[in-house]
Amino acid sequence: MRPPPATSPATSPAKPPGNQAAKPLTGPQKALRKLGLVRPIDLVLHLPLRYEDETRLVKLRDVREGDVAQVEGRVVHAEVKLGGHRQLLVTLDDGSGTCLLRFFSFYPSQQKALAVGNLIRVQGEVRGGFVGLTMMHPVVKPAGAELATALTPVYPTVAGLPQSYLRRTVQGGLARADLPDTVPAQYLQEIGLHPSWQLRQALLFLHNPTPDVSLDTLQDHSHPAWQRLKAEELLAQQLSQLQSRRSRARLRAPALNGAGADSLFERLLAALPFQLTAAQQRVVAEIRHDIARAVPMHRLLQGDVGAGKTVVAALAAAQCMDAGWQCALMAPTEILATQHFAKLVAWLQPLGVTVAWLTGSQKTKERRDMLALIASGQAALVVGTHALIQDKVQFHNLALAIIDEQHRFGVAQRLALRDKLGRQELEPHLLMMTATPIPRTLAMSYYADLDVSTIDELPPGRTPIVTKVVNDARRDEVIARISDQLVQGRQIYWVCPLIEESEALDLRNATATHAQLSAALPGVLVGLLHSRMPPLEKKAVMRLFVGGQMGVLVSTTVIEVGVDVPNASLMVIEHAERFGLSQLHQLRGRVGRGAAASACVLLYATGDAPRLGEAARERLKAMVQTSDGFEIARRDLEIRGPGEFMGARQSGDAMLRFADVTEDARLLDWARRLAPVLLDQYPALAEQHVLRWLGGKTDYLNA
Ligand code: ADP
Ligand code: MG
Fold it and tell me: Which residues surround ligand 1 with Cβ inside 6 Å?
C-alpha cells in the first residue's frame, strides 16, 4: 500500500471562542452535541461508515441494481402523475440506456430543472423493477458540474443532522484539530505501518480517500489508515489502564495481615463443612497476599456458577476483621443479598461476628439499628444491596469492599463503595466477583488494570448436568418428567422467557405457566416469582423453595444470579431461544449443586417461522455441547461480538469504537507492549495521547 499524500488542508488559526453562550443552538448543533461531537478531535474521530463515489460518471448500461451511481443524461420525458400519490416522473436517457426518476415531493423550481430537454446529473441508489432502472429522489445537479476529487464519506448520524452539514463540520474539525503525532515512528514499523501514516495523514485519508483506493480495504478496516486508528485507540486504552494501575500503586490502604492460629480466618476454615478446592486455596492465597499489603487491592475473582466464590469472599472478610477493620459485601439483588447474608451469618455468627444487613425494603427501625451498628464498628461485616452506598451509611472503618456480580453495577456505584472509607488518606481494598468469565482477549484489553484470580474447578461431588433441547410442542413430556423428579423428592426451577419490550408480557407468560403447572401437578406447591413482586413476598416464596416445601418454582429471570438450592435437580427454561448464551449458562448453574443427577431442559418455540434463527440455534447447540463457563464465554463472544458482550455488563463504560480485540489481537499485543515504554520514555506524549482519545473520561474501568 502506498503511503498517503503528504498534503494537508490549510490550517486556519483557531477562532476565538466569542460570546457563544448568548446564541441558542441550532437543530444540527444540538444533534452534534447529542453525538458527543464537540471538540475538533471528536469531529475528526467521527469516522465514515462508508463512502459514495461521486468522482466519476457511469453509463446506465453498466449500472446494476443496488449500485449508488452518478449519471449524466438528457431528460426525455417528464410528467406529474396525479391520483394516489402525486409524483413527478422523469425519464433520463444517457445514450446507453434510460432510467426512471421518481419524486414524491418537489418544488416548482425542481420541476423546472427537470424539464424535457435539460441535461442533468443525478446521483442515487439504482433499483430494478419492471419499469426498468429507477432512482427515488436522486440528488440532481446540472450536467457538467465539477466532479468530486475524493470519495464522499457517509457518516453515522441522527435525525436532524444532514450528511452535508456533518461533512462540512468534520472538514472544519480536520482543519482546526491539532494533531501532532504521539507515537514515535519507529514503533509504527513494528506493526507494518509506513512512518508516513501519521495520525493526521490517516485521518485526512479516511475522511477524503482518493478515488483509486480499494473500497474493500476501507470497508473491512484493513487499510493502513484504519490500522493506524485502531492501533491508536488500543494504545490509549492500554495507557490509561496502566496509568490507573500505577497511580493506584501510589495510594495507601490498610494492611490487613497478621492472622494467628486462633484468628477468625483459621477458625472459619476449620468450621467449614467442606475442604477448599485447590483452586479456592490458590485464589484465597492471592487475595490474602494482596490485602496484607498497604496498597489497595483491585482484583477480579472469576469463577463459574457454583465454583464457590462466596466462601472465598468470607475468608477474605475474616482476614479483614482479624486486622480490626470492617468489610462490606454488596450484591445486585435483594434475593442474592439475602442468600449471602444467611450464609455468612451461619458461618460467622457462631464465631462471634456481628453481621449487619442493609436493603432498600427494610423497615425504618431495623434500618436505623443497622446503621448504628455499622457506624459504631460493632458490625464488622455488612451485607446488602445498593442500600450500602447511600449517603446515610457511615462505616466505622471500612477496609475491604466485596462486590458480587460486579458487572451488574455501574461504575458510579462501584466508586461510591470505594469512597465509603471514612479516612481520606486510605483507600479500601476492592474485590469484585463475577460468574461470567471474561475471555482472554477482553481481559487483556478492558481489564488490563485489574488483577484476576480464577477458580477453574468446581467443588467435588457435582454430577454433570445433562442438557436437552426440546420443542415446546413436547411440553407435556417435560411436565411428566417433573412429576418423576418430584416423586424422588427433588425440586424444579421453571424459568419463563425474557421479553425485553414488555414486562407485562413476561408476567403473563409466567402466570400462565404457573397456572398450567399447578393444574397438572395436584398436591404440589408451585410457586411464582417475578420482579414486580414486593420484596417481602419474594422473600416468602424463596423461603419456601429453599426450605424444600415448595416443589416447583416458576419465575421470570429474577433467579438468574446466586440462588443456591442444592436439592433442585431440574431446570426448565421456556423460550430458551430468546435468552443470551451467558444467561442460559447462569440459569443452568442453579442446578447440579448437589450430588443428584441434574438436567436442564431448553424448551424452544419457533413461532411462525419454520425453524429457529441461526444465532439462536448456535446458542442452544453450545449449551448442549459444553458446560464449561470459559468455553461458553468464548462462544458467546464469537456469536455476539465484543461490543455486545461487553455492552451488557459494562454499560456506560469505555468501549472501543474502532478496534476489535479479537480481530485486532496483533495490534492489542503491540499496544500492551508499547504502553509501558511510552509511559516511561515519552511521558509527555503518553499524556497527550490519552487526553486526545479519552478526554476526561479516564476513570471508567478504574472503579
Ligand atoms: P458461586 O461461585 O456461584 O457464588 P457459591 O459460593 O454459591 O458459588 O457455592 C456453591 C455451593 O458450593 C454452595 O452451596 C457452597 O457452600 C458450596 N461449596 C463451595 N465450596 C465448596 C467446596 N470446596 N466443597 C464443597 N462445596 C463447596
Ligand atoms: Mg455467587
Answer: 274-277, 280, 303, 305-311, 435, 459, 564, 566, 593
Cβ-contact 629, 584 below 8 angstroms = no
Whether the pLDDT of residue 455 is over 90: the answer is yes
Name 155's Cβ contacts closer than 8 Å, sequence gap at least 6.
46, 47, 48, 49, 163, 166, 167, 170
Assess contact for 294 and 248: CB atoms under 8 A: no
**Whether pLDDT at 462 is above 90:** no
Is pTM, for the whole model, over 0.85? no
Cell readout for 315 is: 475468608
Residue 5 confidence (pLDDT) above 60? no
Highest mean pLDDT among 186-200, 551-565, 644-658: 186-200
Q: Is 397 exposed, middle or buried (0-12, 13-18, 19+ CB in 10 A)?
A: middle
378 Cα: distance to centroid of ligand 1 (angstroms):
28
CATH classification of 465-626, choosing from 3.30.300.30, 3.30.300.160, 3.40.50.300, 3.40.50.1370? 3.40.50.300
Centre of ligand 2 from the C-alpha of residue 309, in Å: 6
Comparing 58-72, 533-547, 550-564, the range with the smallest average pLDDT is 550-564
Q: Which CATH architecture has domain 282-455?
A: 3-Layer(aba) Sandwich (3.40)
The residue whose CB lies within 8 Å of the most ligand 1 atoms, and thus the one to mutate among 302, 310, 315, is 310
Q: Which of 32-36, 234-238, 404-408 has the lowest mean pLDDT?
A: 404-408
Per-residue pLDDT for 510 more than 70? yes
C-alpha of residue 365 to centroid of ligand 2, in Å: 29
Q: Distance between CA atoms of 400 and 324, rounded to whole angstroms? A: 11
User: Which among 435, 428, 419, 348 has a CA at the least distance from the CA of 383?
Assistant: 348
Maximum C-alpha span of the chain: 101
Q: Which residues contact 118 (CB under 8 A, 6 or more apart)?
A: 74, 75
